[in-house]
Amino acid sequence: MPIQKVLVVDDSKTELMFLTDLLQKKGMQVRTAENAEEAFRKLAEAKPDLILMDVVMPGQNGFQLTRAISRDPQYADVPIIMCTSKNQETDRVWGMRQGARGYVTKPVDAAQLQAAIDALG
Question: What is the pTM of this model?
Fold first, then answer.
């Protein structure tokens, strides 16, 4: 199934704008959320085909949010790719253990992100 609707969760407006622009140029519809609470609201409104998740956010972090989403039967089938400045191998492993299906470090490289999205299919 082609990825058409993406939810980007990041507390940085700069990252939200960058990722939105990148994905829209690929023909995807993008919705954004700046924290876990807003992300769950957006999920309830419209289920995306993919979630791009930051890790370092106020309140619930991206690892916790990824775990909560991937364990919720309603959303467990939505793939999550972590997009984060946390670039240690232990961070990547931990993110994948929380339910992420991909891990891309910031600054996000367009080709690397596309490869992570393509790997889902």
Answer: 0.97
